Amino acid sequence: MTNLLDIDQLRTFIAIAETGSFTKAAEIVNKTQSAVSMQMKRLEERLARPIFVRDGRASKLTEDGARLLDYARRLVKLNVETIAAFSDVVLSGRVRLGVPDDYADRYLPEIMARFSRAYPGVELSVLCEPSVDLIERIDAHEIDLAIVTNCESRRVAETFRRERLLWVTSNRHATHLEERLPLALGRPSCAWRRIAIEQLESVGRPYRLLYSSPNAGAVAAAVLAGLAVSVLPESGLRPGMRVLSATEGFPELPACNIGLVRNSRDSSAPVEALAGYIISSLDNLSETRAAE
What we know:
The protein has about 290 residues and is of the alpha/beta class. Among the domains are: about 1-85, Arc Repressor Mutant, subunit A; about 165-255, Periplasmic binding protein-like II (D-Maltodextrin-Binding Protein, domain 2, 3-Layer(aba) Sandwich). It contains ten helices and eleven strands. The strands form three sheets. Strands 3, 4, 5, 6, 9, 10 and 11 form a seven-stranded mixed sheet that branches. It has a two-stranded antiparallel sheet with strand order 1-2. A two-stranded parallel sheet has the order 7-8. Helix 1 (about 5-20) packs across helix 4 (about 65-85) and helix 5 packs across helix 9 (about 270-280). The longest helix has 24 residues, at about 65-85. The protein starts with 6 loop residues before the first helix and ends with a helix.
């Protein structure tokens, strides 16, 4: 009889592939580094092929490892959905979720609705703050899970979604044509703000920071009113906005990774259930790889 792949091993494999490090992956899956190494040894033995190769201090995928990654993502996602569909376990307790308001309007309603229908006995508490603040709250054990923007991979996160960053303006105004470009951006610690300014300076485009706010809704309002240009992920686009291109003098921006950060002290069943719903609802990496 053919032996089946171990889902836990595949989840660890995905974490290593995303972080390029056995040590960082161990933090994500809450295992020791030796346990992670043993899992990957057994996975390679099962496949009878090497899936990682050392590149300095980093661990990179072999050609077979790259092939496995797409299958692994789909298998882990399907496993989460299957367990949820047939689970008769009545969960109770409380889960504290943090999410930036950039994503709250777009993503949160579906996640909350699906999770509450499946687990009505679990109290879901939601806090909307910028990613940098949510990470601090995770470190202080004030929340259990956080959806965070991880543009520069400064924090170990379970990346499940990738989006383009876009220059946006109002489709009813010509704000982007002003000689000194007015900007509406996040606060100084915002990675998108720094990226936007660096890109403008790289092409010698004069600018002025007209509006600064940690609130995505306030930034969007300034754009829609024709007061300023801003930078948003694809999911942050709103009716009335127009994307600005390189042909209009706006340099291409890097991709933005969206990931899940967990409180290392709390791996309760309700927390893991919510994490599964978030990943299954928002994951677009499997679809991206399949398209490629």
